[in-house]
Amino acid sequence: MLKVSGLVKTVPGGRKLFEGLDLSLAPGEFVAVTGESGAGKSTLLNLIAGLDSPDAGSVQVAGTDIASLDDDGRTRLRRDRIGFVFQAFHVLPHLDLAHNVALPLALQGRDADESLVAARAMLESVGLGGRGGAYPRELSGGELQRVAVARALVHAPGLILADEPTGNLDPETAARTLSLFVDRVRDAGAAVLLVTHSAVAAAAADRTLVLSPTGLVERG
């Protein structure tokens, strides 16, 4: 589902975030990436998603080399193949929960009524059944992250990219949200790449990799 080969990224000023970075994820595999602040974890996700370009190396998602795509092609790849879960939720405040979750399906041009049915089913799966008409301002942080998880999964992507998804939550809420996230992505059979500072979150993965300037090193 994901194959990263020989990735090199340099930041302004000439400092190399990493070089020679290799990574492979099989369908259904859950991998956590940890590392010090500034190591480039979020940058790595941006490179994988085609939101940024490496200095060298390649990224393939579901067999497609991102470098071979133009901007529209990269947008379609993200729309169809990748689900995102962010620390800051990125739930749209002017849309109710059902329309927030249905957004990836709307971007794919799916039927509006069918999209809302699928969105409400996903909300049910994350414990927010019957809340489709509510607005983000009515929800707690943990509930908002559940909405973000539902939105990431509603279009059945093969790859989930998660950037500190429990970073804005208190420890108890973070633990509950992490458990739900793990259960839902495993049910979906998606490959998951989670970047995190949290040892608890990393422990939920099948394996943990540490990001350093020389690439990724397996922990334990």
Report on this structure.
The structure is a single chain. By secondary structure, the protein is of the alpha/beta class. It has a single domain, classed as Rossmann fold, CATH 3.40.50.300. The chain is 36% helix and 26% strand. It has helices spanning 41-48, 71-81, 97-107, 112-125, 141-153, 171-188, 199-203, and strands at residues 2-10, 16-25, 30-34, 56-61, 64-65, 82-86, 159-163, 191-195, 207-212, 215-219. The longest helix has 18 residues, at 171-188. The protein is globular and about 50 Å long.
Mean pLDDT reading: 94
Instruction: Give the amount of beta strand, in percent.
Output: 25-35%
Which architecture per CATH? 3-Layer(aba) Sandwich
Taken together, the total number of domains comes to: 1
Unreliable runs: none
